[in-house]
């Protein structure tokens, strides 16, 4: 990016009316989040056609995918918020060092997770709630998810970088192409080629590889405000700690969500495969429902962090209030749809299994009731995180999925 483009981008981030700027960044992010949720839900939908145990396997392995996503988002949002404030303060070289360091950090962690997961796959699946009938399907699915772990994780990191610097459209392109490809590949790999549950994981890993290549190309071709270079990786341990500290609220949000999912699977396993399958389907639907709010919040974050770095605190306050208001209205509508359409949604996944439908309808409606509150929670949590207030942001993130949910 040349100097003229940098100045134009800086002007856009600090002078465009706040509501318009948030929507400009949020729409591509919402699309990215929805596409990601759709292809995750597509896995559940197609695999569900193989049987109740297969559907339960996707729910079990979803906890692993949530961990991969948590690592990618923790580092991506931690480094992304730092580099966004650095760009706002016109510290471009420091922003490149931050981006390169976060990328290398995520690469090492994801490789370690991949090796660990493959080495202890069977024991891990049992720990995550797989019954003996679900276990073979879960192992087949998990194998390719662990193999694809590094590219999945790094795709999340780069997508967050692009969003943090106000280039959400580029992130949307990479994620959407991979997501659409996954939806087309799922039935081919599962049914046409006869790979079954493993085919869904193959499709996911391959589509994530395509997304990774597209996203990386934006950084290598100078479309980003920062560069990713192994020569720019910092040896300063303080930067790694800062990335983790700023990204900690994200880790708590998504890491504890994974633990909560495991807790639900373990609890549901006592009631049989139908309960595990129902909670698996419900979890994917709620993830899809919440992705709209999460996408809007992630459109707000770069507006907040960039203007905080530029010392435009009036714009930061306005952005936070606007996000809370719009988010509440948005999630009120989503909540109503989930409650009204719960039976139809569950029948779309397992139309012949009345037990799965009954459990799923009850669970979906119960979880949808409080969705409207996530507007205020998301705006507050992401606002604190984007301005570097890591401790209160972390406590707030821990409250929902950890402090209150797991004991209950």
UniProtKB/TrEMBL annotation:
GO cellular component: plasma membrane
Domain of life: Bacteria
Places the protein is found: Cell membrane
Keyword Transmembrane helix: yes
Alphabetical list of InterPro entries matching this protein: MATE_fam, MATE_MepA-like, MATE_MepA_subfamily, MdtK-like
Alphabetized CDD domains for the sequence: MATE_MepA_like
Gene Ontology MF terms: antiporter activity; xenobiotic transmembrane transporter activity
Gene Ontology BP annotations: response to antibiotic
Main location: membrane
Keyword DNA-binding assigned: no
Membrane topology annotation: Multi-pass membrane protein
Membrane-spanning parts: 21-42, 54-83, 95-120, 140-158, 170-192, 198-219, 239-256, 288-310, 322-342
Keywords from the UniProt entry: Antibiotic resistance, Cell membrane, Membrane, Transmembrane, Transmembrane helix, Transport
NCBIfam families per record: matE
Similarity annotation: Belongs to the multi antimicrobial extrusion (MATE) (TC 2.A.66.1) family. MepA subfamily.
Protein name per its UniProtKB record: Multidrug export protein MepA
Provenance organism: Candidatus Ornithospirochaeta stercoravium
């Amino acid at each position: 990016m040349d100097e003229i483009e940098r100045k134009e981008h800086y002007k856009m981030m600090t002078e465009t009316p706040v509501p318009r700027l948030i929507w400009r960044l949020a729409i591509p992010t919402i699309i990215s989040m929805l596409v990601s949720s759709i292809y995750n839900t597509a896995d559940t939908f197609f695999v569900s056609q193989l049987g109740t145990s297969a559907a339960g396997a996707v729910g079990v392995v979803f906890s692993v995918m949530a961990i991969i996503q948590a690592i990618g988002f923790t580092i991506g949002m931690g480094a992304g918020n730092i580099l966004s404030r650095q760009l706002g303060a016109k510290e471009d070289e420091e922003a490149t060092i931050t981006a390169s360091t976060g990328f290398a950090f995520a690469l090492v962690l994801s490789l370690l997770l991949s090796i660990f997961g493959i080495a202890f796959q069977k024991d891990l699946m049992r720990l995550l709630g797989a019954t003996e009938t679900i276990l073979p399907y879960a192992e087949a699915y998990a194998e390719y998810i662990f193999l694809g772990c590094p590219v999945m994780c790094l795709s999340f990191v780069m997508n967050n970088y692009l969003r943090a610097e106000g280039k959400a459209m580029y992130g949307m392109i990479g994620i959407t192409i991979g997501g659409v490809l996954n939806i087309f590949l799922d039935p081919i790999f599962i049914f046409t080629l006869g790979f079954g549950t493993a085919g869904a994981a193959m499709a996911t890993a391959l589509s994530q590889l395509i997304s990774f290549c597209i996203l990386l190309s934006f950084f290598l071709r100078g479309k980003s405000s920062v560069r990713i270079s192994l020569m720019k990786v910092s040896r300063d341990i303080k930067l790694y700690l800062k990335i983790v500290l700023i990204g900690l609220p994200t880790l708590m949000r998504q890491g504890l969500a994974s633990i909560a999912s495991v807790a639900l699977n373990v609890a549901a396993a006592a009631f049989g495969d139908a309960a595990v399958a129902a909670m698996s389907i419900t979890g994917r639907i709620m993830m899809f429902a919440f992705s709209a709010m999460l996408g809007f919040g992630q459109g707000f974050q770069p507006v907040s962090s960039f203007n905080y770095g530029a010392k435009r605190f009036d714009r930061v306050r306005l952005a936070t209030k606007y996000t809370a208001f719009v988010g509440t209205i948005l999630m009120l509508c989503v909540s109503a749809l989930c409650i009204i359409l719960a039976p139809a949604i569950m029948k779309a996944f397992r139309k012949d299994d009345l037990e799965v439908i009954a459990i799923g309808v009850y669970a979906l409606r119960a979880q949808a009731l409080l969705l409207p509150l996530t507007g205020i929670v998301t705006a507050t949590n992401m606002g604190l995180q984007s301005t570097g207030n890591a401790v209160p942001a972390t406590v707030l993130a821990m409250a929902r999925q950890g402090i209150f949910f797991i004991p209950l």
